[in-house]
Design goal:
The chain is 9% helix and 38% strand. It has 175 residues and is mainly β. The chain has a single domain (2-37, 52-147, 156-173), classed as Glucose Permease (Domain IIA), CATH 2.70.70. Strands 1, 2, 3, 4, 5, 6, 7, 8, 9 and 10 form a 10-stranded mixed β-sheet that branches. It has a two-stranded antiparallel ribbon with strand order 11-12. The longest helix has 16 residues, at 10-25. The radius of gyration is 17 Å and the shape is globular.
Length: 175
């Protein structure tokens, strides 16, 4: 089963167009959802010690969750009643999408960057592993920048603005 990248949202369509170039260049990944991070990565002090091995995003129920990189779905299923999709990415990293309401991929399926892997519940967990080591995904995620455009005030039809572009770096540091 091959997962397509057609999504009704202009943000996700823009992601599908940009993801291949971005992940190939390894500059940064597009975020898996357009939502605020509400829980940061907290590195554990040892392999089995407590920590938070990814990011939590405050999502809307049913919000599409997209793959940040191309690869193969290596795990799709429930762990302790929680739905997860793990994608073994072509760049050697493994991306984990957790707390999903639904999944749209099957184990072994090829996943394109920007394609929908599932839908979110109230929170989305997103984690990255390099080998068996969890890494902080925040520095590797870009953010979408939308250029401002003028909106008519005379009641005429509004033209769409330019598509957003992925910018690497921290948006709070001038990205």
């Amino acid at each position: 089963m091959r997962v397509g990248a057609l999504v009704p949202s202009c943000l996700l369509v823009a992601c599908a167009a940009l993801c291949a170039d971005v992940t190939t260049a390894a500059a940064c990944y597009p975020p898996p959802v357009d939502a605020a991070v509400v829980a940061p990565f907290i590195a554990p002090s040892c392999e089995y010690c407590p920590g938070h091995r990814g990011l939590d995003f405050a999502t809307r129920p049913g919000q599409p969750v997209v793959a940040v990189g191309a690869g193969v779905a290596s795990f799709v299923g429930l762990v302790a009643g929680v739905r997860y999709v793990v994608v073994a990415q072509d760049d050697g990293r493994r991306a984990t999408y957790g707390r999903l309401a639904t999944s749209r991929v099957s184990p072994g399926a090829r996943v394109d960057a920007g394609s929908i892997v599932g839908t979110a519940a109230d929170l989305l967990f997103f984690g990255l592993r390099s080998g068996e080591r969890y890494i902080d995904p925040a520095p590797l995620l870009g953010h979408w920048r939308r250029n401002p455009w003028l909106v008519p005030v005379d009641g005429s039809a509004r033209r769409p603005g330019a598509p957003p572009r992925l910018v690497c770096g921290n948006p709070h540091q001038g990205g």
